[in-house]
Amino acid sequence: MAALPPYASTGQKVWHYSYLVICAAIFFFLIAPILIIIPLSFNAENFFTFTPEMLALDPEGYSTKHYRDFFTNPDWQVPLWNSLKIAPVATFLSVALGTLAAIGLSQPHVPFRRAIMAILISPMIVPLIISAAGMYFFYSRIGLQGTYWGVVLAHAALGIPFVIITVTATLVGFDRSLTRAAANLGAGPVRTFFKVQMPLILPGVVSGGLFAFITSFDEVVVVLFVGSAGQKTLPWQMFTGLREQISPTILAAATVLISISVVLLVTLEVLRRRSERLRGMSPG
Amino acid sequence: MNITRLLTASTALVATATIASAESHVEMANEMTIVSWGGAYQESQLKAYVEPYQEMHPEVSITWDESSAEAVAKLRAQNEAGNVTWDLVDATAADAMRLCDEGLAMEIDPDEDLAPAPDGTPASEDFGEEMLVSDCFIPQIAYSYTFGYRNDVAEWDGKEPTSVCDVFDTETFPGQRSLEKRPHNNLEWALICDGVPYEEVYDVLETEEGQDRAFAKLDTIKDETIWWSSGADTPQLLADGEVVFGSTYNGRLFSLIVEQDQPVNMMWDTQSYDLDGWIIPEGLDEASLARVKDFLYFATDTQRLADQAKYISYGPARKSSAPLVGEHAELGIDMAPHMPTNPENSKGAFVQNYEWWADYRDDLDAKFQAWLAQ
Amino acid sequence: MTDSATTPPSQPMAVLPGGEVTEDGPMLAADGRPLKHSLNRALRREKLRAFLLVSPLLIFILVAFVAPIAEMLFRSVENQIVSETLPRTVVALREDQNLPEEAPGEPVYEALYTDLFIAAEYKSHTRLGSRLNYEQTGLSSLFRGTGRDVGRFDTDIYTDQFIEAEPALEDPVAWSNWMADEEIRAALPQTADVWDAWVKLTVEANEDDPLEEDVEDFVYAALYRDLANGAAPAGFPDVDVSGFETVSIKALFEESDEDWVDPQIWQVIETYSPAYTDGYFLNSIDMMNGPDGDAQMRPDDERIYLKLFWRTMWMSLAITFSCIVLGYPIAYLLSTLPLRSANVLMILVLLPFWTSLLVRTSAWKVLLQQQGVINDTLVWLGIVSDANRLTLINNATGTMIAMTHILLPFMILPLYSVMKTIPPSYMRAAKSMGANDWTAFWRVFFPLSIPGIGAGSILAFILSIGYYITPEIVGGTSGVFISNRIAYHISSSLNWGLAAALGSILLALVLTLYWLYDRIVGIDNVKLGG
């Protein structure tokens, strides 16, 4: 599909190019909302609207005031820091516990494997509003509601299925003779894990961790219930913003986050290529 | 039950209570968590009374929690868990009534807990019965649900709507409308525009036929209506030209028209009054309660309520505050004409019956949602 | 793939097929134990090790997630509030014969008087009113209003007559002595019960000393009933109550609010008096407990939940389907491109995934509304006229578009990971044997990619069935899901029982799907990229 063979018929050519057009259209659908956000975040007005001045490309219609607001207003800075304090810890918990459990689950003999798997995946399949309400009542009772650790634990629970799924997937293709070889050569289980297993399942762990991180970083329903003023996260601030006073600062915040994601994704890709080179695998 | 044990316990309890009350004054907590709505409204509270109070009492630190929209649910869960973390909650009158019903809010005595007017009129009279709608409710402001309309709609041929019933007139005033996604106000407006006099609205709405009549009236504009659920929706829809009419809080329209300078006009006809105020959660410890009461006494006095009107166009709940309403803090315009309580604006105002809604809310909400889903 | 993880791989030690028993006896391991035991022990150890690795997370999830949800869902049947607030009334109602034709007899009202008096002191009567108002409109104000009146009921005629007949009956200390006497208590059961309640109330709610307070009227009213029944315990003042002036408590209640003699009201209280109720579940499938206690459908104008469940299901299906239609070509393209270009394009897939859901939804609002970007562009291109702009938002279309966008990456990632495992040589082989492009794709590639479709579909479907923020913002009235109503009942109407019942049904649906999925595809086959 990548390139058309020179002997392709006219029909094949037509089909090939229309297929590419369809794909381009779908990609456009995927990023259209994001492309909309960026110009609107430079809106000089306080609404999510393309003003006539903006459409006429009049510099008057544009302004960076929403970015100034985002970077100077404590209403935005405090939630940003809260998010940055909560997400990594929740991710760490998810990844540590999740990886351990995924390794356990990949052992040949695990009693009640299906049932355990279902329980561990449950945070992903239970509708969020039910989880949020349930955790809210329960955490209130045990004094975790409205605390930092309450939010961290709730978010860790939500992130775990992603870690389990990605790490299990890498372990499915894992060659067990490698650990046996390591054991045979005298390495203890811990050493085997860190020296042999870990480097090989690392891609799964990293991608699960990223999913867990984004789950926490973009989560609004649960934090709205389990958190209180002290744990107000960025999505929470956006949610109140959308509900109480629409301001394109939300879009400025989103643009900043998108830029960070792009940098992150590109870095990951570069790192991946580098590691592939190091491991001597062909780039495909 | 072991009565003897209970009696002994009670004696001990009474004894400690006597000792406690014998002490001259109670220590006041220096931390206070205030729950409010966020946005411009919270800002007005901050400027008008929280900052002045903190100037007087620099030792007090205040945490804001912008959870008023979920206040009833959260407070109920906190109370169930026996772990109330809020000291003072801003709530609408209807929510306050429900919190009071649920035993989640403390009953107050206006004359004892609130400051009298400068001329000595006791608080209960200064606020008046129409403001003190629940035993737990300490009113701050009167706001209203009213309509804004675009003043640049070509299809209207220069005609301007003057009455709430023009919202139902899609012939003369074509275009989309936005109404709130709940039965309150909408059913009342529908009946009023169907010819029911103000004072009979709730009697009619109690009957099956009356409800059908209200829904039938709403049916006439159902296809042209966008239903909003958050206060920011209607201003955005009006600014986009997505709707030509929209109901929302009058303060939102003020900011849209005066502060943002959008081509929108305000229609005060049949504005529906609502109240917003404080409640004190049940179950505060003594020190927190003492601090909250001290703050409230200050924050709801005549001058403070009048000051709030400098920052937002909501009417102070005290009669004695009205003459003190001055100019907008930044724009320097006279605020009185923008108050829902201004005599010129309140001529055709409609007053919601909270007690009635407390009964009919569940039933009518189910019917309203079923009607929406049809 | 599932198989390799669930079935044990071959053991490192060679074991004779068929069994370990040879002619010379059991086969032995190196340490001299029977090999079978040794293997079993190793197996047990391995099981234990696996379990130990899993257990920290299992415990964590059970405590931090499963327990809260179980507790939440339990609220859907819980209904102790009626019998806790009105304990005596509930008992009296059970013995009453008048219902359902007419209002209950005097004993029920007497019990209600005591219960409501106490409840009003604890301020729990309004909470009960709110609870029962879910079942019958008007009960909220009925309880609130009468709760205010009940302290002022004219029942002091019993108090006055007793004190006149025997002044010692005014003394709370004497009362507490009598009430400590087991024989008197046994002879005056109603009085003893009500006295205990009064003492508890005085201490707990009012924080007073019962030995210094005037005994409340309702205690004397109970005493009158006990004595009128012919009780004459030794050690208690002998008062002849036959000539006492009496008052009908029922009439007092009727005076406070005539709804109290409406049999329908009582029917509701009786129906909801057990500690557990099916009422919330009935409500969540548009049914209710009818006047005669049988389950029946609600009136037409109140039916909504079945419709919402149905809508949630079919719209989630439609969203899943559009995810397949849009996701498949993209995944196919990515899987056939060289890895480097595929990874760059993958960033386009992941970018929306990493962008806040709230922001993406708001962006769709800007794009889709009538004065929005898409309509403006179409009008500018002359495809639609200015007067007939398309309605793309605040309806089911809006929800479909925005949700498809949000869930598309969840479809593309598993599809891509499955397609990457299909060797391109299969297609080439098919073509070399004479298949044209379409046949080769349809007969060879597509069947092999079905597991990916399965994985993506289940993920998209399960996630979409529980969404509520996006439908809330772009769904208008025809595009909202059942989760929106659950959220409403949790945060606005406070009808947590109904929210829990709706949630239980939704969860049951999702779990059934999950189970089916696990049966058909296997949960191990879900891959999120990588």
Automatic annotation (TrEMBL), chain A:
Keyword presence, Cell inner membrane: yes
Keyword Protein biosynthesis belongs to the record: no
SUPFAM superfamilies: MetI-like
Family: Belongs to the binding-protein-dependent transport system permease family.
Entries under Pfam families matching the protein: BPD_transp_1
GO biological process: transmembrane transport
Membrane disposition: Multi-pass membrane protein
Record domain ABC transmembrane type-1: where: 80-268
PROSITE patterns reported for this sequence: ABC_TM1
Protein's name according to its UniProt entry: Polyamine ABC transporter permease
Residue ranges of the TM segments: 19-42, 86-105, 117-139, 151-174, 200-226, 246-271
UniProt keyword annotations, A-Z: Cell inner membrane, Cell membrane, Membrane, Transmembrane, Transmembrane helix, Transport
Localization: Cell inner membrane; Cell membrane
Domain of life: Bacteria
Gene Ontology CC terms: plasma membrane
InterPro entries: MetI-like, MetI-like_sf
PANTHER family per UniProt: INNER MEMBRANE ABC TRANSPORTER PERMEASE PROTEIN YDCV
TrEMBL record, chain B:
Keyword flag Signal: yes
Signal sequence interval, chain numbering: 1-22
Keywords, comma-separated and alphabetical: Signal
Record flagged with keyword Signal: yes
Source domain of life: Bacteria
Gene3D superfamilies, per database record: Periplasmic binding protein-like II
Listed InterPro entries: SBP
Protein known as: Spermidine/putrescine ABC transporter substrate-binding protein
Taxonomy of the source species: Bacteria, Pseudomonadati, Pseudomonadota, Alphaproteobacteria, Rhodobacterales
